[in-house]
Write a structure and sequence with these properties.
There is one protein chain. By secondary structure, the protein is of the alpha+beta class. Among the domains are: 449-580; 685-790, Gamma-adaptin ear (GAE) domain (Immunoglobulin-like, Sandwich), CATH 2.60.40.1230. Helices cover 54% and strands 9% of the residues. The protein is built from 34 helices and 12 strands. The protein has a 5-stranded antiparallel β-sheet, with no helix packed on it. Strands 8-11-12 form a 3-stranded antiparallel β-sheet, with no helix packed on it. Strand 11 (771-779) and strand 12 form a beta hairpin. Helix 13 (216-228) packs antiparallel against helix 14 (243-257). It is elongated. The two termini are 68 Å apart.
């Protein structure tokens, strides 16, 4: 290829290359020829060569050697060379390049040029790649051009001023008088640039915002002129007069009217006129209406105007365009807490969007439907949500189940309805619910004594229907163990009684124990339930003893430990078995206002069988005849120290036991004895992130010389719920990191619940430990991402 080949020929040769290697060869030969011509002092084809180099740059190949040629061509007196030179500067230079400083003087000279097109080139280049130093040097020139009589230059200068304000905030005051005067222009391009500049100035400075609030009547007048103007071929787009300028003015009005009664009152009539007169059958009209709705909802508008805005969003929900439906639901999600009744009128349309094929629309519809649930519509809304849960995609089941649980906890009309709803969710999507669902349902059942018989009968039937849903099976096993006597009686007023024999119940539990679908946790529930039935039935105690003894050699250590303890109860302490295995006491929450998924720590400790909890008040001294009770704490011997009063057995045993704070029997599950429990001090906690109402705390626990467990706890103190909350962590390469599953993926408003996530670190090389944490979440439809670095860990 010859060096003088035209640009079109070079493009044709590159496109005809059959392989990437052949393409690179063509480009390398052409770049070599361009370099050779750049070195020539008398080069008449400089613009031609630079144009070819810019095409090479667009293909992704290096073209930095053309930067100085751009500088030389910008200084040329010929317009054709200036045009290509400025284009090259915008593409090849940025504010980080030293060569960009060399064109500052050329730009300044061209801003004073007599030719408006040369001035335009300089303005575009400064607005595209001007650094902070260039902006400071050239800001007075831009302010001078804002006052020129040429509309073509003024609109370019206004957009250039926007770039300067973004780069150097302090220069905003320089452009305030000029920006105010531009609002009297008739040219739409100048008006558009002026509105964008004023918007930028108001967002940067509260003082400037107050000054421009006086321009609200002028902006209203401009907007009215656009709305009522007739057909203008220069500005008409699908029957709407200059929708781009209308959208910009509405955004500026939204900023000026926010938290200001006077400014809001001045624009109420205009917004009502735009909302009623804009054609909603075209996408252009919908864009203007959407900005109008956002403005109405963001300012201190009248109640009737807000209802009109919500009704416009309701019409958007009926639009065939999924994008319009999506933004409608996003906007409704933001205002559902403040305009709940107005949004409720469109509940049917929102629920219908749950059937949409688009995944993003379906997710928004689910979030909005959950937000619309109230005490008055809980039954109808829950019916629709349960239907959706049965057919929703897998990625939405966890969110749907969690939302249903929270709504049922808050608005349940009756305890029976509450239990039936949770059981329905567990039957439909048991594998997608969070871990805290099981203890929460157990607590609910325990506190509803009048429904014990109904619940155990219903769970027994569900156990035979499907044992693949592990949370449902765990709750069923727990209920059968606690209330198996009610099941065997076969008398239940709330539901149709089922005649069940002792063998039927034990067969069901054995199926769970032997099923390959049962997790170790589920088997633990089933084994404990089997053991508890030994005090509730009379004819099959030997069969229960046989079942328990089988698991004394189980490969699962936890299950084996339980089986060995239960065997010891049968053999050595059979006289105490009834007291140890009696029914669980009522579990109380430690605070009011908690919703589903938030059991306090103390009840959770009580619900674990066999745990010993220190009480604040000491018990009376135990008589000498209680020595057998002491033996229970050391089933296999090994504790020789006398036990002191001051503790009680929680969990499945309600008999008060005594244990010294440092004795070997501090835990019913400590079979071997002889191990003194060391009181653990609470791990120190530090706050590593606190922004926008979201707080993230960190605590550490040293597991070994190289092992460390980090607990991250997040809370939300804002007025809005946060969804999609995720944490990502990064550590040095020599450190091994394992992140456990979080306790939840949403944060209710006002600190309703906290999210915890464990991070296990292994640092075998003992390097200086650092961690970088990325916080991501969605709040009021906006996705927020932030980063925080932890350089020191508490307690290390």
């Amino acid at each position: 290829m010859s060096p003088s080949v035209p640009l079109q020929e070079m493009i044709r040769a590159i496109r005809s290359a059959r392989t990437q290697c052949e393409e690179r060869g063509v480009i390398q030969r052409e770049c070599a020829a361009i370099r050779a011509q750049f070195r020539q002092t008398d080069n008449g084809g400089r613009s031609h060569n630079l144009a070819k180099l810019l095409y090479v740059h667009m293909l992704g190949y290096p073209a930095h050697f053309g930067q100085m040629e751009c500088v030389r061509m910008i200084a040329s007196p010929r317009y054709s060379e200036k045009r290509v030179g400025y284009l090259g500067a915008m593409m090849l230079l940025d504010e980080k390049q030293d060569a960009s400083l060399l064109i500052t003087n050329s730009i300044k000279n061209d801003l004073s040029h007599s030719n408006q097109y040369v001035q335009s080139l300089a303005l575009c280049t400064l607005a595209c790649m001007g650094s902070a130093e260039m902006c400071r040097d050239l800001a007075p020139e831009i302010d001078r051009l804002l006052r020129s009589s040429n509309s073509y230059i003024k609109k370019k200068a206004a957009l250039c001023a926007v770039h300067i304000v973004r780069k150097v905030h302090d220069l905003g005051e320089l452009f305030v008088p000029s920006a105010r005067s531009l609002l009297s222009e008739k040219n739409h391009g100048v008006l558009h640039g002026a509105v964008v500049l004023i918007t930028e100035l108001c967002e940067r400075s509260p003082e400037t915002l107050e000054r421009f609030r006086k321009t609200v009547p002028d902006l209203v007048q401009i907007m009215k002129g656009l709305v009522i103007s007739g057909y203008s071929p220069d500005h008409d787009v699908a029957g709407v007069s200059d929708p781009f300028l209308q959208v910009r003015i509405l955004r500026l009005l939204r900023i000026l009217g926010r938290n200001n009664e006077a400014a809001s009152d001045a624009m109420n009539d205009l917004l009502a006129q735009v909302a009623t007169n804009t054609d909603s059958t075209k996408t252009v009209g919908n864009a203007v209406l959407y900005e109008t709705v956002l403005t109405v909802l963001d300012i201190k508008s009248e109640s009737g105007l807000r209802v009109l805005a919500v009704n416009i969003l309701g019409r958007f929900l009926l639009n065939n365009d999924r994008n319009i439906r999506y933004i409608a639901m996003t906007s409704l999600q933001k205002i559902v807490s403040t305009d709940h009744n107005a949004v409720q009128r469109h509940r049917g349309t929102i629920v219908d969007c749950l059937k949409d094929q688009d995944a993003s629309v379906k997710r928004r519809a689910l979030e909005l439907s959950l937000a619309l649930v109230s005490a008055s519509n809980i039954r109808s809304m829950m019916k629709e949500l349960l239907i959706f849960l049965s057919s929703c995609p897998p990625e939405l089941r966890a969110q749907a189940a969690s939302g249903i649980f929270n709504a049922a906890e808050r608005y349940a009309p009756s305890k029976r309805w509450h239990i039936d709803t949770i059981l329905h969710v567990l039957t439909t999507a048991g594998g997608d619910v969070r871990d805290e669902t099981v203890p929460n349902l157990i607590q609910l059942i325990t506190n509803t004594s009048e429904l014990h018989c109904y619940t155990v009968h219903k769970l027994y039937r569900a156990l035979f229907t499907d044992i693949s849903q592990q949370p449902l099976v765990q709750v069923a096993c727990w209920c059968i163990g606690e209330y198996g006597d009610l099941l065997l009686k076969g008398e239940c007023q709330e539901t149709e009684a089922v005649q069940v024999t002792e063998d039927d119940v034990l067969d069901a539990l054995e199926i769970v124990l032997q099923s390959h679908m049962s997790t170790p946790t589920t088997r633990g529930f089933a084994l404990t339930a089997t053991m508890k039935l030994s005090t509730r039935i009379t004819d099959n105690v030997d069969r229960i003893r046989s079942i328990v003894s089988i698991y004394g050699s189980c490969i699962d250590v936890e299950l084996q430990q339980r089986a060995v303890e239960y065997n010891a109860l049968f053999k050595k302490y059979d006289h105490m078995r009834a007291a140890v295995l009696e029914r669980m006491p009522v579990i109380q929450k430690n605070s009011l206002g908690q919703t589903n998924g938030e059991l306090s720590e103390e009840p959770m400790k009580e619900s674990q069988p066999g745990k010993v909890k220190q009480e604040e008040t000491a018990l009376p001294p135990q008589p000498a005849g209680q020595a057998q009770v002491v033996d229970l704490l050391d089933l296999l011997g090994g504790s020789q120290e006398p036990l002191q009063p001051g503790s009680s057995v929680g969990g499945s045993a309600s008999t008060h036991l005594t244990a010294a704070p440092t004795s070997a029997g501090g835990d019913l599950l400590d079979l071997l004895g002889g191990f003194e429990p060391t009181p653990l001090a609470p791990a120190p906690t530090v706050t590593v992130y606190e922004k926008n109402g979201v707080t993230l705390t960190l605590s550490c626990e040293q597991q070994s010389e190289s092992g460390l467990t980090v607990t991250l706890t997040a809370s939300n103190s804002t007025d809005s719920d946060i969804s999609g909350f995720t944490l990502q962590a990064a550590v040095p390469k020599s450190v091994q990191l394992q992140m456990r599953a979080p306790s939840r993926d949403s944060l209710p408003a006002h600190g309703g619940a906290k999210l915890t996530q464990l991070v296990v670190l292994n640092n075998p090389n003992k390097v200086n430990l650092k961690m970088r944490i990325r916080v991501s979440y969605t709040c009021q439809g906006s996705v927020v991402q932030d980063m925080v670095q932890v350089d020191s860990f508490p307690g290390l």
